[in-house]
Amino acid sequence: MPSKPVQPAALKKNDLIAMIGPSGYLDPGKITDCLQTLQQWGYQVMVDPETVGVYRGNYFAGSDLERTEAMQRALDNPDVKAILCARGGYGMSRIIDQLDFKKFKKHPKWIIGFSDITLLHLHLNRRVKISSLHAPMAAAFMKSEDTSYLLYLQKALKGSLSQYKFSPQPDNNTGHVTGELIGGNLCLLAHSVGSPSEPDVKGKILFIEDVGEHFYTIDRFLWQLKRAGWMDKIAALLVGDFSTTKDTTQPFGKSMEQIIKDVIPQGLPVAFHIPVGHQPANITLKCGVQYDLNIGKKSVILKEK
Amino acid sequence: MDQPDKWLSADSKIPPYLQKGDCIGIASPSGHIQYKELLPAINQIKSWGLTFKTGQTIGLKDGTFGGTDQQRAADFQQMLDDPSIKAILCARGGYGAVRIIDQIDFSSLNHHPKWIIGFSDATVFHIHIAHNYHLATLHSKMCNSFPDNWSSATPEQQATINSIRDALMNTKKMSYQSLKNPMNRTGRAEGELIGGNMRTIENLSGTRSALQAAGKILFLEETHEYLYNMDRMLWNLARTDQLRHLKGLIIGAMIRTPQRDPNDEMNKSIYELVMEKVKAYDYPVTFDFPVGHIVENYALKCGVPHRLEVTTVGTTLIES
């Protein structure tokens, strides 16, 4: 049996969180509220001066080297108790193989993020065996938005066991399973397949979400996972937010529910409309941590074990 | 990773070339297409002295697809198993081949090999067949790229269509030229061609249809993607170790969708993005090769050995 991922320690008052930009550039205006909230939660925040809030005249938060070094410093610094990725976008694929997790593995800390950061979650799960937090990033803290779901991140950092209750959906497949949680952005899940970061999904609860892709692209990603054996190996599937999926001039002709039904074995427990993804309703999920999932007729309960 | 002895021993078989009177089957394993859209291709096929048979999927429509998965798989299967059909031309690309590839039994190709023709979404067939059946296939334009009016078509349009005939009927050894590009890496190589649409190739990664490019000359093309998506696909090739043992690398048209906000563009060109992935190796690399979603999309014989020569003057690719 492969060893289970190790959970980093919960944060204590005055612990230090490092905010790093490993992927795309984030407007500095989107950082202020995040800093303030984290401080209100009782933490100190160190904003990486190289990769957060400095516009480099292009897409990235910094050069590959700057982003790698910023991430490496935070991974290696024993004073840093958690790393909040400022933003996703694109860029993790360019630096993942440059990161050295040796010190981090000895002194694990929570790595927080989603979207492009999915690749890091998968890599941590497969290669490093440390749990990580699939959770909102800096822009989600803006007070002009609905910030109510940040509560779940706050709880997770404090070390409370997460427990969620969702309303049932007509297309759900009921079932009761226990397994490690793994998942994230569907594009990045597919991108990992065949690479050293591809997770072993056997017996796991897989959650997926994506933003702004076409139906045919979503379908293609799912068929890749299916053809790579994922759908036969997983214990259950949680379908997150796909509300921004685009259609083509010639309509794709299948709903998200039908697309999913086409790729899963009959009877696999599935729950739709889980609030995870590129929306304010984005819960915090602990990747690599055991959960109990009960998809019932009246409710869906996801509970950390 | 493939061991060298494995890929050296896996020389691909070549299906019989087509003779006058032979029949090409036209099927739509991916997107929906109407019969009238086949007419320009049918006219050319007839002018080559070949006959044609259209499959049941032509005209069928299920959402964006040329029929349901079952219908598309059954049509393709019938054409594979029909010994009177000597080649299968995919009517168009779009999306859909990956949904049916596992439903199709290709084993009749072992006894009655035939040419499978297409590009874009049909890359699924090229890569799957190369992986599992070691059989040559033809990467080329499909029915929806044939010019409506042959006599008024440009010389480039005519030349690319004629290249399909030349490849299928073996009327001459295939040869291609492209202009020099300062980003090219010079050198000579010989190997079987393999390749196609980059998104489609990434989609096969980690599956039983996965690209096996070691020992071969890899060609890639892409269209309608953001540059960062192309970069991510290139990283998938690098991180699945497909770039290490190449004999040569051919980059065709890489047509990118610009970012809505120009400030969101990456600060690298496609040339840089490719070269940084292969800088540790020394095989020849050539850019702007005439293959992809462009008018100059010449037929390429996948699985057939070619000689690639990239010099400071320009690039030539010649069938061995």
UniProtKB/TrEMBL annotation, chain A:
GO terms for molecular function: carboxypeptidase activity; serine-type peptidase activity. InterPro entries: Carboxypeptidase_A_C_sf (IPR027461), Class_I_gatase-like (IPR029062), LdcA_N (IPR027478), Peptidase_S66_N (IPR040449), Peptidase_S66C (IPR040921), S66_fam (IPR003507). Residues 178-292 form the LD-carboxypeptidase C-terminal domain. Pfam families: Peptidase_S66, Peptidase_S66C. The keyword Transferase does not apply. Keywords: Carboxypeptidase, Hydrolase, Protease, Serine protease. It comes from the Bacteria. Residues 17-135 form the LD-carboxypeptidase N-terminal domain. The active site is at S115, E209, H278. GO terms for biological process: proteolysis. Belongs to the peptidase S66 family. This is Muramoyltetrapeptide carboxypeptidase. It comes from Arachidicoccus rhizosphaerae.
